[in-house]
Automatic annotation (TrEMBL):
GO terms for biological process: L-histidine biosynthetic process. It comes from Ruminococcus champanellensis (strain DSM 18848 / JCM 17042 / KCTC 15320 / 18P13). The keyword Transcription regulation does not apply. The lineage of its organism: Bacteria, Bacillati, Bacillota, Clostridia, Eubacteriales. GO terms for molecular function: imidazoleglycerol-phosphate dehydratase activity. It catalyses: D-erythro-1-(imidazol-4-yl)glycerol 3-phosphate = 3-(imidazol-4-yl)-2-oxopropyl phosphate + H2O. This is Imidazoleglycerol-phosphate dehydratase. Belongs to the imidazoleglycerol-phosphate dehydratase family. InterPro entries: IGPD_sf, ImidazoleglycerolP_deHydtase, ImidazoleglycerP_deHydtase_CS, Ribosomal_Su5_D2-typ_SF. Its EC number is 4.2.1.19. Pathway: Amino-acid biosynthesis; L-histidine biosynthesis; L-histidine from 5-phospho-alpha-D-ribose 1-diphosphate: step 6/9. Keywords: Amino-acid biosynthesis, Cytoplasm, Histidine biosynthesis, Lyase. The gene is hisB.
Length: 193
């Protein structure tokens, strides 16, 4: 079973995350930020990765620590579940439409963390979610999981749709990348990632 479980407790956040890579995309998520919970639920459902995410953060300050730290811990749990990364397809790419919006994500589970984020929002908030934090979440996730991640919100007029398309595009790219390859070995000419 490819599983990961990580706890992180600081003065700003207390987080417990469990992932099951070969789950059915079931989610138990509570971060205290409704729209963020919605996005993480979509990430779980569309990637097929079952997730338990419980985050208690200093929301009286703002949502930055909650969102970024959740990305950190989710990345660490994914990295733990992947182990030495042998037997995975490693790469994934997906275009996802959401009504008038279209997003693209491409990733490499490479141990070379990087984020390229292209896209912006017209509004500062979606519900209680600060739209600036979408990029911060994916940066924290990519760097702590060891993923090179490119996210492009290609177009759209509704910020909810644009953000959701981006999360779902990452989910589908991730699903392809963590799928088992035919050889069961590390997909690298170096023999290791």
């Amino acid at each position: 079973m490819r599983t990961g479980a990580v706890d992180r407790n600081t003065r700003e956040t207390q987080i417990h995350i469990e992932v099951l890579l070969d789950g059915k995309g079931t989610a138990q998520i509570d971060t205290g930020i409704g729209f963020f919970d919605h996005m993480l639920t979509a990430l779980s459902a569309h990637s097929g990765i079952s997730m338990v995410i419980h985050t208690k953060g200093d929301l009286y300050v703002d949502s930055h620590h909650t969102v970024e730290d959740t990305g950190i811990v989710l990345g660490e749990a994914l990295k733990q579940a992947l182990g030495d990364k042998s037997g995975i397809c490693r790469y994934g790419t997906a275009y996802i439409p959401m009504d008038e919006s279209l997003a693209f994500a491409s990733l490499d589970i490479s141990n070379r963390p990087f984020l390229v984020w292209n896209g912006s929002f017209a509004t500062p908030m979606i519900g209680a979610f600060d739209t600036n934090l979408a990029e911060e979440f994916f940066r924290a996730f990519a760097f702590h999981a060891g993923i090179t991640l490119h996210v492009n919100m290609l177009y759209g007029s509704n910020d909810h749709h644009k953000c959701e398309a981006a999360f779902k595009a990452v989910a589908h790219a991730l699903k392809a990348a963590i799928a088992e390859n035919e050889t069961g070995t590390v997909l690298s000419t170096k023999g290791a990632l």
